[in-house]
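User: Could you check the structure of this?
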Amino acid sequence: MLAIARTRSDIEWTLGTAADVAAGQWDLVTMTGHAFQTLVTDDELTRSLGAIRGALISGGRFAFETRNPGAEAWTHWNGEETVSGADDELVTLNRRVTEVANGTVTFEERFTADAMDATVSTTLRFLDSAELASVLTSSGFVVETQFGNWDRSPLNDDSLEIITIATLIA
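Assistant: Sure, the predicted structure tokens are below.
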């Protein structure tokens, strides 16, 4: 994603975490690939939002996406699919949800290919738009806008995504 972004020469793109950058240096911090959902505990969420707040200039923005819990996407995650991996090698992905509790979903993914057989367990946190607004506000942000998908459609109960742009309160 960063390599594609760097094709634009009018923007400086930097790979790293918010904790890696100098304070008050950036006007935009993004979190992609549903990474926000990997912040499972309140402490992880608070520390990450604090680091993001510290990296932004006054009035800077934080943009990210998270899956909408109302759509219950995890109900479609069990099963097997084949995807294209590195060097167009076909990888079989078998996913199985193992637990849904307290706003989190835990699942196992088994990846198999010619030279690979690995199983990974992941837990994701699902926050609805009101919970997102609350946690962002308590961390010094205000929600500027939210969309229900990448096409900027309105957010509703059945939207697959919650695309959020939040502004650091000056």
